Amino acid sequence: MKQPASPSQSLPRGIRFAAFVCLVLSAFTGFFALRESMNLGRLSELKEAGDSQPAFVTSLLEAQISALEPMRESRALILGALSVACALSFVAAGRMLRPEGLPLERMRRMLGGAAISAALLRTIDGAQEAVVARRMAPAIIEAMKTLPELQGQAIEQFQAVPWLFSASTVGLTAFVAGTFALLGQYFRSERVRQAIIAQDGDFAEEED
């Protein structure tokens, strides 16, 4: 005898795919935000560890720490909030895929709000990363000039480095924050809401 489908399995494929994308994106974004937040609390240790590294690595690490120190508290706050938003998004997306008896509508509302919050916080995080990238650019150029394989290269060849460094930071921010924003708006849409309510059945009636 065929087992009845769970609410999540009966959802349209588009909703389940969006929930899976949100699950993966939240996991990676939250992990890296948490790791960087923890590293902010041990900048002095990282600086000491860099002293034993090659001169190229040491100069880059010193430039990064110098750029991070003025914004350490605000950046730690943003990264901590981003980690929480990603955790909520991860839990809600996971429950959308495997509700385990929970009403999907509650998870939909949580997921929509958490994804929008993550988009906003990741945008601020990206702006701070862009500032760090701009401040590190001169150190990167000087460090590259010391590499044996780049000796004798024209100075003009290094001028694109700051632009490429900043562009990659902005591009990654736009991709991650934009994806979170699109997912948040998708799960807050009326079409998704009606599809979720139709699957909730008795849960929807109880909330009404």
UniProtKB/TrEMBL annotation:
Transmembrane stretches, start-end: 15-34, 76-97, 163-183
Keywords: Membrane, Transmembrane, Transmembrane helix
Name this polypeptide is given: DUF2975 domain-containing protein
Organism for this UniProt entry: Archangium minus
